[in-house]
């Protein structure tokens, strides 16, 4: 019978990568380390600094999950993954969670045996122009030469956008981000188009970053978020609520610095989030102070955003869509109660 | 009439046939066409070298700690300076770096002992290098015994990892390659067909797909929870791949040994292994040095492909450093540094092979 089961499991692997694994949380606890699949080199999201540490928005999401699951944000092993092997690494159990600037799409969510748990960053394709051109909106770009990368969805989105808005453009196609920013700087094109997060990183590579501006228009939907294996709902909940806890903390004004004072706050919402009133970690197999540990060790969403990609960083990306729902954005977390 | 009884003393050759000017005239300005090409060549060299030197040395920034210390007019070597520890040791913990240094010092000493002809006990040192050293390297680098802290392989990186991969690949590929080459020339049908299939299979697929298979497919076939270390997967992939290439290089050398050599050895009553080990292989291996070193150099450079399975070799760690938001925009410096390091190692290997050829040269040189 056991043999039959394992053969069945083997067949499942062959038919569709659908590994049913029990209790990722128990494995993580036994190992006393979270294995988190990240990008090897994505400025602002996951990049190696000169102290041998990974820094970025994606890696801070991993740290938050470790803080919730293990009580220590430092217990993360970052596994750098190529874009091709990222889903296999998750399916095979090599990583517990994938937080690697991965766009949430229907096909990935439904056919790869993974579940996306939420959106840590709303990205999308945008345009960058030289600031002395005085262009204010992408709709003024009729007839422009546009630098872009070959073989990406950016190239297709670009064609659609210009056709829909009845504008002409001349594509100038490059192979890599370094080449396309080089082409932009050398004046091969007036406009550089790519995902907004990447544009801000490319802008920093210019000799004078202030010589270029990123236009406000976003022409595609690229919601980036962490993903887990299908079949372990408890772990799915932990990853999902780790992100929600950071968003809720921002909404309530709880930061890394004031979280200890907030423990005594009167507000029942805060008391529930920080585990002073009831135990909302229990349903996930976590202690009552799971969210408190996330905020104390990693910070709320605003702090994480600011220090990695926002105003506290070199990129200075505006919150835009990533602002809370109360401030004109679409980041919205269900309440803890 | 006077009779000259002494020889007229030899006069110096005319100024137009010796010295640098004559050399220039003979080699560079011997005719109008050559003169034009020489001048053109000099001009191209001038166009190429002046900006390069200007960029790499004159306008370059050497001292500092952050991006602000770089004027951006020339190269920013500050970036390399700030990261050099990471480029060489990867993420190996700072307090344990002596272990890496010791491993490579021991390795260099053993290799030097083998390479310098005057030193005795070559055979014992060779045994030490092949048997004791890998164990020592494992205990030192990985740890977990003798009070050494475990340093997991995901922390290995940079030049250290490149060298480890290359050395393991070379040490593993050569003996397997020799066995495969002998097997392919064997009369025994099963041995022969196994070797042919093995060689043709591994030679027929690109290394990048081998590594992809090892990292993407292999984990899916393993039972849940069992995972083979990424570095081990890379070792196995690279060694099997290179041994197939090595086998063909060695077979080429074996073909060049006249049949009479082996027949004569057989006539003396030598067994197969004696014939091969004492008569055929020593002659064949000597002739194959250029081919073997060629394969080693290409293996050394192929190790950069492990980047795609998430291991940071020298090139991988340079690329990772390029995405640090504090050091964006220094791609050129990073790649120049990586290329320079690779060149140093590949060039040394090539020089050593030439030295070895001269030393073992016994009438095969053409």
Automatic annotation (TrEMBL), chain A:
Statement: the UniProt record of this protein carries the keyword Transferase: no
Keyword Membrane: no
Annotated ranges, domain Solute-binding protein family 3/N-terminal: 33-262
GO biological process, one term: amino acid transport
One Pfam match: SBP_bac_3
Source taxon at top rank: Bacteria
Database matches in SUPFAM superfamilies: Periplasmic binding protein-like II
Keywords recorded for this protein, A-Z: Signal, Transport
Family per similarity comment: Belongs to the bacterial solute-binding protein 3 family.
Protein's recorded name: Amino acid ABC transporter substrate-binding protein
From TrEMBL, chain B:
Family annotation (Gene3D superfamilies): MetI-like (1.10.3720.10)
Matches recorded under SUPFAM superfamilies: MetI-like
Protein name: Amino acid ABC transporter permease
GO cellular component, one term: ATP-binding cassette (ABC) transporter complex
Compartments in which it is found: Cell inner membrane; Cell membrane
Family: Belongs to the binding-protein-dependent transport system permease family. HisMQ subfamily.
Transmembrane segments: 33-53, 98-116, 123-141, 161-182, 194-221, 276-297, 304-322, 328-349
Molecular function terms from GO: transmembrane transporter activity
Membrane topology: Multi-pass membrane protein
Keyword Transport: yes
Segments forming domain ABC transmembrane type-1: 159-353
PROSITE patterns to which the protein is assigned, alphabetical: ABC_TM1
Entry keywords, A to Z: Amino-acid transport, Cell membrane, Membrane, Transmembrane, Transmembrane helix, Transport
């Amino acid at each position: 019978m056991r043999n039959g089961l394992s053969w069945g499991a083997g067949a499942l692997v062959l038919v569709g990568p659908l590994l049913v694994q029990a209790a990722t949380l128990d494995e993580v606890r036994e190992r006393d380390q979270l294995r988190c699949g990240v990008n090897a080199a994505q400025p602002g999201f996951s990049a190696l600094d000169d102290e041998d540490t990974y820094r970025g928005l994606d890696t801070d999401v991993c740290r938050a999950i470790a803080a919730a699951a293990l009580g220590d944000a430092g217990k993360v092993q970052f596994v750098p993954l190529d874009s091709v092997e990222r889903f296999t690494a998750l399916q095979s159990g090599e990583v517990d969670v994938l937080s690697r600037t991965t766009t949430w799409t229907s096909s990935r969510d439904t056919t790869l045996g993974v579940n996306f748990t939420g959106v840590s960053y709303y990205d999308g394709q945008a345009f960058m122009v030289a600031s002395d051109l005085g262009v204010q909106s992408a709709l003024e770009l009729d007839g422009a030469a546009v630098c872009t990368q070959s073989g990406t969805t950016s190239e297709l989105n670009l064609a659609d956008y210009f056709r829909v808005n009845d504008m002409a453009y001349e594509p100038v196609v490059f192979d890599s981000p370094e080449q396309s920013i080089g082409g932009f700087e050398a004046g091969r094109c007036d406009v550089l188009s790519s995902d907004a997060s990447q544009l801000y990183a490319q802008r920093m590579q210019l000799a004078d970053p202030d010589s270029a501006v990123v236009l406000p228009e976003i022409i595609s939907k690229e919601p980036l978020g962490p993903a887990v294996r299908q079949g372990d709902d408890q772990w799915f909940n932990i990853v999902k609520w780790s992100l929600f806890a950071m968003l809720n903390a921002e909404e309530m004004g709880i930061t890394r610095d004031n979280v200890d004072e907030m423990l005594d706050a009167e507000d029942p919402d805060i008391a529930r989030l920080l585990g002073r009133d009831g135990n909302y970690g229990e349903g996930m197999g976590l202690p009552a102070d799971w969210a408190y540990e996330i905020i104390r060790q990693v910070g709320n969403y605003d702090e994480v955003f600011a220090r990695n990609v926002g105003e506290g960083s070199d990129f200075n990306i505006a919150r835009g869509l990533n602002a809370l729902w109360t401030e004109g954005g679409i980041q919205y977390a269900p309440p803890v109660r | 009439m006077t009779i000259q009884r002494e020889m007229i003393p030899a006069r110096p050759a005319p100024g137009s046939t010796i010295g640098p000017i004559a050399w220039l005239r003979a080699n560079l300005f011997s005719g109008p066409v050559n003169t034009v090409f020489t001048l053109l060549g000099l001009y191209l060299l001038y166009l190429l070298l002046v900006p390069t030197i200007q960029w790499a040395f004159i306008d370059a920034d050497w001292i500092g700690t952050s991006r602000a210390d770089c004027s951006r007019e020339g190269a920013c070597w500050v970036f390399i300076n700030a990261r050099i520890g990471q480029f060489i040791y990867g993420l190996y913990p700072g307090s344990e770096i002596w272990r890496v240094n010791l491993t490579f010092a021991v390795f260099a000493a053993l290799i030097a002992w083998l390479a310098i002809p005057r030193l005795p006990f070559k055979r014992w040192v060779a045994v030490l290098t092949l048997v004791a050293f890998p164990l020592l390297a494992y205990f030192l680098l990985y740890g977990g015994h003798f009070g050494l802290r475990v340093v997991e392989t995901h922390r290995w990186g940079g030049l250290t990892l490149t060298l480890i991969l290359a050395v393991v690949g070379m040490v593993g590929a050569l003996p397997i390659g020799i066995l495969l080459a002998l097997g392919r020339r064997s009369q025994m049908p099963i041995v022969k067909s196994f070797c042919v299939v093995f060689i043709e299979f591994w030679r027929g697929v690109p290394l990048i797909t081998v590594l992809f298979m090892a990292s993407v497919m292999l984990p899916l076939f393993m039972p849940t929870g069992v995972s083979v270390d990424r570095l081990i997967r890379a070792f196995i992939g690279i060694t099997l791949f290179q041994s197939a290439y090595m086998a063909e290089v060695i077979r080429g050398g074996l073909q060049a040994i006249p049949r009479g050599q082996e027949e004569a050895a057989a006539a003396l009553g030598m067994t197969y292994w004696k014939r091969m080990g004492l008569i055929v292989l020593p002659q064949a291996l000597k002739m194959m040095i250029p081919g073997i070193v060629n394969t080693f150099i290409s293996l050394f450079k192929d190790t950069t492909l492990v980047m795609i399975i998430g291991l940071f070799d020298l090139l991988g760690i340079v690329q990772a450093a390029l995405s640090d938001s504090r050091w964006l925009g220094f791609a050129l410096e990073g790649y120049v540094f990586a290329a320079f390091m690779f060149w140093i190692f590949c060039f040394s290997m090539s020089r050593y092979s030439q030295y070895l050829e001269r030393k073992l040269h016994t009438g095969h040189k053409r």
